[in-house]
């Protein structure tokens, strides 16, 4: 089979909205903070017979319109029905899920077309192992964003999801804790049917699931098999997909307008009056103008709202320079996060710890080399950099007399490097400097060592 075979990937992304009340009742929505099951429930969100939905949550509706506009969608302004989507599953006590018709259509983000954006209620949480159901999240408002199958690889999907999640964070209207975003991935390979992978809970999970499924489908077709239309689940631990059921069609869900909820109709002033939040691009411009940050650093920071927030918190504290903060965040902090494969909100750093570290570097209380080593440690431990420096005596050594002995000893044991330096090879000096810094475990003042080294090599 050709490596250039056509792969099409589309996404259905569900993200809970940050509201005080559920979509059709007054129950609280903080299920992700509540350990006790079935605490935030009432007859409406548990589907009790005879219960009627409250009027639709206006703040949730406004949020969906806002996001639709950010995604450059055409907002549908009238006759938007809330429909009942029927299916039988323990997490859906009424036997149907309320979901709106599209509120926004024909948008685009990062070159990927957005087919539609709509509002729906979350089902409960069903534990397959115990057979128990927790309805705390039942009825929580969700935004669903459906893309065209414009992505061709797991990398494409990962890049799109990162940009989408970052944009949604900028609204400050989504629930932003680990594992709340859920994505269904639709994959089809030329010659095969569409396969849906359900309820992937992270960008990393989507990347792994797509990678496995593309290989599985290609392998099946190479062996002469047929890819059938079905729904599959993804196991985060084994990193494989497994068949769940034959894929349903829209007809299987028996959509009907909910007779208890009148169709939605938007006044033009309502849509136009929704204030759009700052976007990554407008924030980039503001950061460059307000703090004098280099364009490449500003671009890197705004790609992750949490990282840009860290930078601005440092600036608001007025304890470190913008140049230092932007350089260390973009080079060192992100390097450590990427090495670990985690996001900023998954590490132990915060504005206070980073500020403390950068103040030590700026004041020359520690060298940059020691600062980098400290960062490797505190990003996992959350320890105080200042306390570690005092406890482990990691402060910068600048005393010329103490350093002169180390420099002299280094020159004596590396005579070939001395010969090379005097022969016009500047890299030999770098070698000698590195040797001194290694002996001093990175604590030596670089400028003092360089001055002593050049004097000794005359």
Descriptive account of the structure:
Helix content is 42%, strand content 17%. The chain is α+β, with helices and mostly antiparallel strands. It starts with 6 loop residues before the first strand and ends with a helix. The protein folds into three domains: 7-272, no CATH class; 280-392, no CATH class; 400-456, Arc Repressor Mutant, subunit A.
What would you say about this model in short?
With 458 residues, the protein is of the alpha+beta class. 42% of the residues lie in helices and 17% in strands. The protein folds into three domains: 266 residues, no CATH class; 113 residues, no CATH class; 57 residues, Arc Repressor Mutant, subunit A.
C-alpha-based Rg, rounded:
28 Å
Major sheet description: 9 strands, mixed
Major sheet strand order = 2-5-6-9-1-10-11-12-13
* Through-space gap between termini: 67 Å
Percent in strands: 15-25%
Give the topology string: H per helix, E per strand. EHEEEEEEEEHEEHEEHEHHHHHHHHHHHH
Average pLDDT number: 89
Q: What sort of overall outline do the alpha carbons produce when their principal axes are compared?
A: elongated
Give the secondary structure arrangement, pairings included.
Elements: E1 7-16, H1 58-70, E2 74-75, E3 82-86, E4 96-100, E5 104-109, E6 112-121, E7 125-126, E8 133-134, E9 141-147, H2 154-171, E10 182-189, E11 195-200, H3 203-222, E12 230-235, E13 240-246, H4 250-253, E14 256-257, H5 268-272, H6 280-291, H7 295-302, H8 305-317, H9 322-340, H10 351-362, H11 368-381, H12 385-392, H13 400-413, H14 415-422, H15 427-439, H16 446-456
Parallel strand pairs: 11-12
Antiparallel strand pairs: 1-9, 1-10, 2-5, 3-4, 3-14, 5-6, 6-9, 7-8, 10-11, 12-13
């Amino acid at each position: 089979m050709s490596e250039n075979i056509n792969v099409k990937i589309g996404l259905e992304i569900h993200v809970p909205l940050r509201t005080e009340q559920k979509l059709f009742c007054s129950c609280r929505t903080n299920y992700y903070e509540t350990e006790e099951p079935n605490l935030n429930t009432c007859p409406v969100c548990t589907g009790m017979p005879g219960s009627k939905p409250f009027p639709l949550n206006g703040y949730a509706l406004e949020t969906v319109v806002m996001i639709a506009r950010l995604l450059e969608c055409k907002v549908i302004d009238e006759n938007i029905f809330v429909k009942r989507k029927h299916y039988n599953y323990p997490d859906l006590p009424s036997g149907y899920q309320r979901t709106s018709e599209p509120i926004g259509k024909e948008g685009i983000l990062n070159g990927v077309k957005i087919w539609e954006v709509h509002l729906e209620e979350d089902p409960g949480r069903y534990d397959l192992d115990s057979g128990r159901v927790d309805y705390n999240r039942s009825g929580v408002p969700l935004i669903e964003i459906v893309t065209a199958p414009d992505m061709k690889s797991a990398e494409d999907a990962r890049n799109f999801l990162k940009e989408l999640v970052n944009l949604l964070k900028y609204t400050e209207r989504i629930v932003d804790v680990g594992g709340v975003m859920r994505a269904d991935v639709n994959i089809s390979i030329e010659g095969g049917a569409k396969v849906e992978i359900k309820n992937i809970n992270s960008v990393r999970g989507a990347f792994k699931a797509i990678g496995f499924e593309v290989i599985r489908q290609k392998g099946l077709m190479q062996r002469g098999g047929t890819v059938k239309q079905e729904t599959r689940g993804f196991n985060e631990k084994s990193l494989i997909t497994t068949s769940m059921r034959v894929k349903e069609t829209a007809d299987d869900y028996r959509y009907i307008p909910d007779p208890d909820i009148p169709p939605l109709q938007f006044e033009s002033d309502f849509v136009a009056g929704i204030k759009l939040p700052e976007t990554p691009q407008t924030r980039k411009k503001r950061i460059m103008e307000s703090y004098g940050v280099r364009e490449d650093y500003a671009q890197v920071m705004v790609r992750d709202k949490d990282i840009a927030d860290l930078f601005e918190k440092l600036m608001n504290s007025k304890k470190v320079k913008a140049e230092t903060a932007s350089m260390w965040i973009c080079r060192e902090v992100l390097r450590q996060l990427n090495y670990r494969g985690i996001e900023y909100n998954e590490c132990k750093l915060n504005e206070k710890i980073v500020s403390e570290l950068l103040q030590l570097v700026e004041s020359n209380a520690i060298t940059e080399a020691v600062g980098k080593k400290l960062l490797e440690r505190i990003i996992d431990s959350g320890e105080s950099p200042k306390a570690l420096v005092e406890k482990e005596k990691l402060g910068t050594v600048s005393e010329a007399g103490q350093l002169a002995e180390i420099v002299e000893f280094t020159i004596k044991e590396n005579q070939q490097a001395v010969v090379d330096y005097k022969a016009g090879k500047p890299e030999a000096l770098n070698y000698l400097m590195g040797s001194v810094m290694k002996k001093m475990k990175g604590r030596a003042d670089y400028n003092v060592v360089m001055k002593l080294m050049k004097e000794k090599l005359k």
